[in-house]
Amino acid sequence: MPTTSARARLALIALLSATTFYCFYKSRRLKQLKKLTLNPNPSSSSSPRTGKLFFISQTGTSKALARRLLDLLAANGLAFELVDAASYEPEDLPKEALVLIVASTWDDGQPPASARFFTNWLAESSEDFRVGSMLLSRCRFSVFGVGSRAYGASFNAVGRELSRRMRALGAAEILPVWEGDVDDGDIDVVFEAWSGKLMRFLNGGVAENGVALGNGGEAEYSDVSDDDEEEEEDVVESGVVDLEDIAGKAASRGAVTEAKANGTVNGKRDMVTPVIRASLVKQGYKIIGSHSGVKICRWTKSQLRGRGGCYKHSFYGIESHRCMEATPSLACANKCVFCWRHHTNPVGKSWQWKMDDPLEIVNTAIDLHSKMIKQMKGVPGVTLERLTEGLSPRHCALSLVGEPIMYPEINTLVDELHRRRISTFLVTNAQFPEKIRMLKPITQLYVSVDAATKESLKAIDRPLFGDFWEHFIDSLKALKEKQQRTVYRLTLVKGWNTEEIEAYYNIFSIGNPDFVEIKGVTYCGSSATSKLTMENVPWHADVKAFSEALALRSNGEYEVACEHVHSCCVVLAKTKKFKINGQWFTWIDYEKFHDLVASGKPFDSNDYMAATPSWAVYGAVEGGFDPYQSRYRKERHHRSNQ
Questions:
Q1: 3-class SS of residue 489
Q2: Using one digit for the tens of pLDDT, what is the confidence trace for 469-516?
């Protein structure tokens, strides 16, 4: 018993000694830091270490912003080195006195793969008790995050995490994390505001957390209290500034005393901000109201000139010169790698903008479309007859850009088009199953099936929804419930989804589509938002081989029915339903469809099909080109390799 008591006393003495030693060490360390901070070494003041400006970038946005800041710093006589975090040795961070970071958030709230060594080092160091909480105590820093608010909780997660880890290692934060939203159109404004505050601090001002920069370039501490900071935040949160409208924290500390919401009505914002509007208009879009658009298709121009129609003309008998391409929602829930709009349109998981009247959208769309048709007058090949027909659209492709079924009044808009006997071809990206279920009859309803596995769908579509796969499968199930014509639309991207024959076949039964359109991806030029190149574009022979293999795997349920060589596109059709006595019936009797809609009685796809002409059938010598049109072949002068 006495031995046990003695051991306990010794253990207690050892614990008290260790605690005393630790407290003594921390006290001396803090005094040394304070001495260094308040009394900088004159020699170090005369030749301060160059600051580091890091960027963490995937598509180039953060890098471009960092370069802009570097120019501003240089203009103010401040020496900074621009550094890609991917090529930096993080073990050197304790040597840095001043660090600025422009960081993007990529997949699932993670940094781009190239920068993960840097971010992982910070995370591991901040959680390693052997490192200690004063490793970066000589460093001041600030972070600007670049991301998309549409991704919800993971919005700018990387910027926030970097700030937390740096602070955990003892670094002093000059400004709290500022956040730019690439989809809100105001990221440049927010970045400039953040840069302006940095300039004031670096030129000797007091930062928002009380840190100041003395003449020697070292940090000092002002008398700003926590209570003062809370008071300033309360002013901002009282409603003077709409933080979401400025896409970041530009006024998070009371910097802005008054702000007007950008294009808001009753708390709802315009979907199309001035920046997005300017970008889309530059691409040839005509913007309707605050969230819709219309654009003339090149195939509309082509058939006006008698030079051939699009693949829908070959497959389904539309008159391309009488087709209007439009959308009531420029927003989308995906950021596909092959997006032919280079992600200039907004994104979102639900309707959060003010809403325009559907009748106004239809009227304006037809008016703008007609004006674009009139501009074709006098163009070689355009006849008065075709021009007159083009002024009265008979078809509407609701697939211009974005997600049309996000628009809450989509049924009213479709009703208005049908009332004018304008057929509807609506494309959805398979992320809104309930919207599909509530849709009224559409002439032909498409679901984009860009991949057949969860992994490849995530890689190609880059969806906003965390449970995107469940949304996708449920959307296919909703498609199966429709009685009118339905289509799976597959976009083949070589190297991404061209090997998934078995997986594609397995999802046929889920949606049971009437048709499966298979098209090679269109290369739309280089873009910071996409890494696709011409190497990812399949030849028509590749598309045919894939289609034949898929038809063969279906054991005769589907056959390759039509092709349009010029568009690198073919269509599979249900054999029992659309091949009657050896004749394909993929075309549509549009007048019959409108009569059926007007009757108000139930009907299905069998009730309005029409015979497919021989020139459009798969394997025909015409390759899907209408022989009643004049084929025009451009002269191509390619540079010789010799």
A1: strand
A2: 999 999 999 999 999 999 999 988 887 777 788 999 999 999 999 999
User: Is 576 strand, coil or helix?
Assistant: helix
**Residues 6+ away with beta carbon under 8 Å from 109:** 151, 153, 154, 157, 158
Q: How is residue 405 written in tokens?
A: 């079924």
What is the tens place of the pLDDT at every residue in 351-382?
A: 888 999 999 999 999 999 999 999 999 999 99
* CA trace torsion 224, 230, 234, 235 (10° rounding): 0
Residue 367 is which amino acid?
Answer: D
CB atoms within 10 A of CB 415: 16
State the residue for tokens 């200690």. Answer: 132
* CA separation for the pair 609, 584 (Å, rounded): 10
CA distance 144 to 194: 8
d(CA 429, CA 252): 36
Question: H or E stretch including 365?
Answer: helix 358-374
Higher pLDDT residue, 641 or 540?
540
Measured distance CA(21)–CA(417) in Å, rounded: 81
> 86-104 burial, b for 16+ CB within 10 Å, e for fewer?
bebeeeebbebbbbbbbbb
CB-based contacts of 39, cutoff 8 Å, min separation 6 = none
Contact between 104 and 111 (Cβ < 8 Å)? yes
User: 427 Cβ partners below 8 Å, 6+ apart?
Assistant: 397, 398, 399, 404, 446, 447, 448, 489
User: Which pLDDT value is given to residue 530?
Assistant: 56
For the chain, how far is it from start to end, CA to CA, in angstroms? 98
Amino acid at 119: T
Amino acid identity at 38: L
Whole-model pTM above 0.85? no
Query: Which of 448, 453, 409, 408 shows the shortest CA–CA distance to 426?
Result: 448
Pairing of strands 569-574, 558-564: antiparallel
Instruction: Record the tokens describing residue 95, joined without a space.
Output: 């040597």
- Please determine, for residue 558, whether its predicted confidence score (pLDDT) is greater than 60: yes
- Integer CA distances (angstroms), 42 to 45, 204, 257, 487, in order: 5, 17, 39, 74
Tell me how far apart the alpha carbons of residues 430 and 435 are, in angstroms, rounded to a whole number. Answer: 10
How far is the C-alpha of 588 from the C-alpha of 40, rounded, in Å? 82
Q: Give the angle subtended at the CA of 536 by the CAs of 531 and 541, to the nearest 5°.
A: 165
| 8 Å CB contact between 87 and 54 | no
Report whether 280 contacts 344 (CB < 8 A). yes
Query: In the 8-state DSSP scheme, what is residue 150?
Result: G
Q: Residue 48 contacts by C-beta under 8 Å, 6 or more apart in sequence?
A: 79, 97, 216, 217
3-state secondary structure of 39: coil
Query: Rounded CA gap, 98 and 153, in Å?
Result: 29
Q: What is the DSSP track for 494-528? A: TTTTTT-HHHHHHHHHHH--SEEEEEEPPP---BT
Q: Which of 82, 80, 89, 290 is nearest to 199 (CA)?
A: 80
Average pLDDT, the chain: 81
Q: Cα-flanking dihedrals φ and ψ of residue 57, to 5°?
A: -140, 145
Amino acid at 141: F
- Distance of alpha carbon 342 from alpha carbon 278, whole angstroms: 14
What is d(CA 596, CA 600) in angstroms, rounded to the nearest whole number?
7
Residue 92 has, within 13 A of its CA and on its CB side, a CA count of 10
Report how far apart, in Å, the C-alpha atoms of 223 and of each of 36, 207, 211, 214, 557 are: 19, 11, 10, 15, 78
**CB 474 within 8 Å of CB 430:** no
